[in-house]
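Figure 3 (text version): structure tokens given as input.
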């Protein structure tokens, strides 16, 4: 008898009739056991596939006739919080009711996903939803005509901007410009960005639609109720709403665009002058400029003189101020001299806009400047900022000499430099020469 750990070997020593040699037999499990195990695994796989198909069928049926368990919980909580009633009609769930004197209507559309290529249930994408929310109140909501659409790639450029750069980069406004600038306050703009989707404010209604899951239903309702509250609080007059935007909006660009719209549509209204006087102390220089240009000259003079001394004032605005006070050169001389002296302290690093501003200031001083402007103009003749500025300074200097011949000979002299620059002695007496006493004859 031979035996091992993995198999049994048996030897038969019984004498045979034909005296055959001894044989060795191997005892192993029968082949039928392997077949039984394979068949059992096959039937288990068949059963798992049948269960998966049944679960998919029941899930599709629930999508066609009603929401799932999670959606039911969200809808019930929303109905309790906002006092709404619920109706299920096939793949659409309706929520209706009244909240804060607003008629609320919600539609939740369930869209079955047509993708059937996935093998297992856990790989199946969830169903898609689309929400439609309508708030209506003919007494408090304004009959506006605005439609706000999210800006995506390939969309058309807007006809106008609100002045809020962050808002204008994400939303396109369709509708009258005066209504958009008057009634899209900072709170409404923030709520619109938080909502996403398409928002329509028209015919005493607020209609919003977007592809959103049911879990965002409560947040969307709160944002829409906030928008309706701010629209109700705003005065129904367009001119008063624009005045409120100019005076109270935290965004400087929105204040500027609102004032432009106010001056364009209500130029003859006394409210425009009242608003302009209010924003003369605004921190935004462009708004102060347009407000000062709206008022009379005696009211706007201090603000314009203060703006003229700013090196960052745009060239077009500087020319406008110079033309406005062209009949009062004594008022313009000191701010322009200060501007030129301040520009010299920058070390010659100026932009093209500053170059045009300096040229206009030199030309004005050459035509209307007094003796006090000569040292400053002479410094720009010697500077290496720009050849154009140097040539303008030469011409302005020559005009100053022609307008003030009382300086006398020797006060101004040409140097021997090849550039032809002129020199003005700072120690020279620039005052008018005193009259000599007549000598009495003996």
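Below: residues designed for each position.
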């Amino acid at each position: 008898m031979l035996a091992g750990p993995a198999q049994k070997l048996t030897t038969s020593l019984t004498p045979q009739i034909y005296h055959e040699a001894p044989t060795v037999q191997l005892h192993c499990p029968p082949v039928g056991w392997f077949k039984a195990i394979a068949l059992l695994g096959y039937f288990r796989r068949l059963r798992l596939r049948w269960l998966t198909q049944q679960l998919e069928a029941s899930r599709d049926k629930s999508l066609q006739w009603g929401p799932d368990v999670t959606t039911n919980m969200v809808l019930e909580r929303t109905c309790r919080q906002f006092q709404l009633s619920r109706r299920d009609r096939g793949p659409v769930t309706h929520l209706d009711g009244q909240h804060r004197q607003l008629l609320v209507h919600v539609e939740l559309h369930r869209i079955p996903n047509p993708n059937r290529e996935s093998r297992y249930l856990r790989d199946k994408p969830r169903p898609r939803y689309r929400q439609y929310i309508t708030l209506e109140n003919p007494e408090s909501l304004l009959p506006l005509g605005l439609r706000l659409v999210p800006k995506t790639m390939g969309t058309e450029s807007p006809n106008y901007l609100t002045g809020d750069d962050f808002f204008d980069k994400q939303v396109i406004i369709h509708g009258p410009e005066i209504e958009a600038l008057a009634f899209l306050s900072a709170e409404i703009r923030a709520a619109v960005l938080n909502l996403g989707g398409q928002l329509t404010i028209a015919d005493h209604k607020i209609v919003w639609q977007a592809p959103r899951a049911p879990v965002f239903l409560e947040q969307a309702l709160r944002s829409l109720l906030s928008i309706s509250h701010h629209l109700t609080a705003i005065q129904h007059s367009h001119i008063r709403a624009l005045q409120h935007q100019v005076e109270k909006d935290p965004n400087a660009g929105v204040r500027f665009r609102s004032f432009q719209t106010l001056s364009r549509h209500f130029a003859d209204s006394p409210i425009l002058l009242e608003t302009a006087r209010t924003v003369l102390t605004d921190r935004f220089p462009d708004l102060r400029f347009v407000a000062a240009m709206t008022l009379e000259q005696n009211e706007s003079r201090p603000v314009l003189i203060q703006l003229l001394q700013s090196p960052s004032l745009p060239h077009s605005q500087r020319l406008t101020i110079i033309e406005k006070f062209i009949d009062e050169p004594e008022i313009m001389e000191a701010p322009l001299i200060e501007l030129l002296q301040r520009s010299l302290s920058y070390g010659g690093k100026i932009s093209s806009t500053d170059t045009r501003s300096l040229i206009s200031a030199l030309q004005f001083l050459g035509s209307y400047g007094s003796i006090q402007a000569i040292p400053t103009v002479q410094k720009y003749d010697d500077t290496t900022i720009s050849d154009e500025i140097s040539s303008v300074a030469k011409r302005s200097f020559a005009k100053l000499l022609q307008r003030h011949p009382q300086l006398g000979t020797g006060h101004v002299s040409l140097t021997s430099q090849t550039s032809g620059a002129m020199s003005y002695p700072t120690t020279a007496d620039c005052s008018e020469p005193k009259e000599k006493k007549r000598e009495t004859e003996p």
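Residues 1-14, 116-123, 408-442 have pLDDT under 50 and may be disordered.
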